[in-house]
Design goal:
Strand content: 25-35%
Bound molecules: zinc ion
Oligomer: single chain
Radius of gyration: 20 Å
Structural class: alpha/beta
Distance between the termini: 19 Å
Largest sheet: 7 strands, mixed
Order of helices and strands: EEEHEEEEHEEEHHEHEHEHEHEHEHEHE
Number of strands: 18
Shape: globular
Number of helices: 11
């Protein structure tokens, strides 16, 4: 391994004011004995990175912090107590960078739900930099078939897999509606197809026109725009008219749950994976009357990562239509804006 230089460039989010991110020269982080230092090869831009950049996020950020939590890279150094990983290996990383060791959720394998966990890109320095330090327990080995750019999207694929295939129980042939065709919504549509969805509906707003087109290309049978079409009427006129079996609510607002409740069939399921801090103001009576199973889905854990890596490795998840642009880290602003405007679904940066 070549000797590491002492400094690197990283994209730092430095305050909660809008547009407070910039490239800065930073010291290369030091991995402790249970960590690996990963040379980042590719890092995906997440909606949460854009929210922090815009100052519209609803979570606590430890400023200043290097953005980025969807990444792949090569191990540049391993700590003395790390077993099973070596310098030079290609890896991807989970996101729960810091966990309280006494968390009961670790014992249950549900560390993704530990409220005190800190993640890359907001709690600790993330991967929009040449190097990032990563606890060895977060690492997964990367198959040679996968490009670093596609591998960087393992994390959002895991979010979608957890929502559709772990926290929902779709049966082959079930009608599935995805509300919100952002990156996570489109990946949820891909997962629904993998899980054997029957008719697949994707619902968006006018700003989603480009994303709805991609939804059709990845196999949605119907796409609807809420401002132009009445989604509830569509559901009433579809099939037996009782509604859809499973709704995946991937919109970044609470209000979309109302639409989910309106279109789900009695005894159906709703899984909410998109979130936003705004309150909602409507009755939950349909939840009761239809005896709907309403389920939240947050993050992912170890076995979801291994499964998704295998699905990516075997080409069962095809990211060609989702990953629309790759650029050097210096062009971060253009890519953030292209994603924010809906011009591209997903951008990946090479630090
Ligand atoms: Zn993300």
């Amino acid at each position: 391994m070549a000797r590491l230089s002492n400094s690197m460039t990283g994209l730092v989010n430095f305050s909660n004011k809008p547009h407070s991110a910039e490239l800065r020269e930073l010291p290369v982080p030091q991995a402790n004995e249970e960590e690996a230092l990963v040379a980042v090869k590719a890092v995906g831009i997440c909606g949460s990175d854009i929210h922090q950049y815009e100052g519209t996020h609803s979570w606590r950020v430890n400023y200043p912090v290097v953005l980025g939590h969807e990444f792949s890279g090569v191990i540049a150094k391993v700590g003395s107590r790390v077993r099973g990983f070596q310098e030079g290996e290609s890896v991807v990383s989970e996101t729960a960078a810091v966990l309280p060791l006494d968390s009961p959720f670790i014992r249950q394998g549900l560390y993704n739900l530990e409220p005190k966990r800190l993640g890359f890109g907001y709690g600790v320095d993330g991967a929009m930099a040449a190097f990032v330090r990563v606890p060895a327990r977060c690492l997964h080995r990367l198959p040679a078939s996968l490009s670093f750019e596609k591998a960087a999207l393992t994390e959002p694929c895991c979010v979608a897999y957890q929502a559709v295939c772990v926290n929902s129980r779709p049966r082959p042939g079930d009608t599935v509606a995805v509300i919100g065709p952002g990156p996570i919504g489109l990946l949820c549509a891909l997962m629904a197809k993998l899980a054997g969805a029957g008719h697949l509906l994707v619902v968006g707003i006018p700003a989603d026109a480009r994303r709805l087109e991609i939804a059709r290309q990845i196999g949605a049978d119907t796409t609807l725009c809420t401002q132009e079409e009445n989604v509830v009427d569509w559901a009433k006129n579809f099939g037996d008219g009782y509604g859809v079996d499973l709704v995946i609510d991937a919109a970044g607002v609470s209000a979309s749950l109302k639409l989910a409740l309106d279109v789900v069939r009695p005894a159906g399921q709703i899984t909410k994976v998109g979130w936003g801090p705004q309150p909602f103001n409507y009755s939950l009576d349909p939840l009761v009357q239809k005896a709907v199973t309403l389920q939240g889905s947050f993050s992912h854990n170890w076995d979801t990562w291994e499964t998704v890596i295998s699905l990516l490795d075997t080409g069962k998840i095809d990211l060609d239509l989702i990953l629309n642009r790759v650029a050097p880290l210096t062009e971060w602003r253009e890519l953030f804006e292209a994603m924010h405007s809906g011009e591209i679904v997903k951008g990946v940066l090479n630090p």
